[in-house]
Amino acid sequence: MVVGGRYGLGSKDTTPAQILAVYENLALPMPKNLFTIGIEDDVTFTSLPQKEEIALGGEGMYEAKFYGLGADGTVGANKNSVKIIGDNTNKHCQAYFSYDSKKSGGFTCSHLRFGDAPIRSTYLVNTPNFVACHVQAYLHMYDVTRGLRENGTFLLNTIWTGEELAKHLPNDIKRYFAKKNIKVYYINATKIAQEIGLGNRTNTILQSAFFRITQVIPVDLAIEQMKNSFLNRMVKKVKRLLIKLCCR
């Protein structure tokens, strides 16, 4: 018997849990033919049942996911973090950044992986060790804790104090944190950025928090490299400005 199906419908990501569903289908006495994976087909009922996502990559793999706002610097900071880790450690790095069509002011999600062995994962981060939510409103708009592993870490940028956070945090998120034994950190990066003259650019503050919480590389080394990266960007901007002035 030849059994086949379709994947990637609607540009959906294809994950290990979906591939596992294919093998479980093949193991049935009468496997479903012309099946689909990655979507929930409630019209023709061709989709295979999908179980909870599974974490692959072994002990040396660390996965992180960042929810940000377009133009708040989250994506740029994460690109810089990957470069810092890749240039200063023996770890292999992988990063993918997704945006909505609005770009500036829209939704962004950064998917980062760091591992001791080459990374061959061709799908998004679905089982992160670390999740950072840089926009407080996303708690009520998106499932920001989805897939966060047991004993994982969650960082929230919020204007709430500790008592306010305990009061206003959605109950389903509280339940998830308790069930999965999640370590939660919160920071008012927005206030700090305004106090030191960065406006709404919270990226550097939250990037520092990421390095300090995760200890992916020594914090002192990370801060030193962040400073060097900032100085290099400033030098390039000054050079471009001087070239424009000279061409006038």
Task: Describe the secondary structure blueprint for this structure.
Layout: E1 5-6, H1 16-26, E2 35-36, E3 62-69, H2 74-88, E4 92-99, E5 107-115, E6 130-133, E7 153-157, H3 162-168, H4 171-180, E8 183-187, H5 189-195, H6 203-214, H7 219-247
Parallel strand pairs: 1-2, 3-6, 6-7, 7-8
Antiparallel strand pairs: 3-5, 4-5
What does this structure look like?
It is a single chain. The protein is of the alpha/beta class and 248 residues long. It folds into two domains: 1-54, no CATH class; 62-225, Pyruvate-ferredoxin Oxidoreductase, domain 3. The chain contains seven helices and eight strands. A six-stranded mixed β-sheet has the order 4-5-3-6-7-8, with helices on one face. A two-stranded parallel sheet has the order 1-2. Helix 1 links the parallel strand 1 (5-6) and strand 2 (35-36).
Which H/E pattern describes the elements?
Answer: EHEEHEEEEHHEHHH
The low-confidence runs, each spanning 5 or more residues with pLDDT under 50, are none
Strand content: 15-25%
Structural class: alpha/beta
List descriptors.
248 residues; Pyruvate-ferredoxin Oxidoreductase, domain 3; 2 domains; 6-stranded mixed sheet; two-stranded parallel ribbon; 8 strands; 17% strand
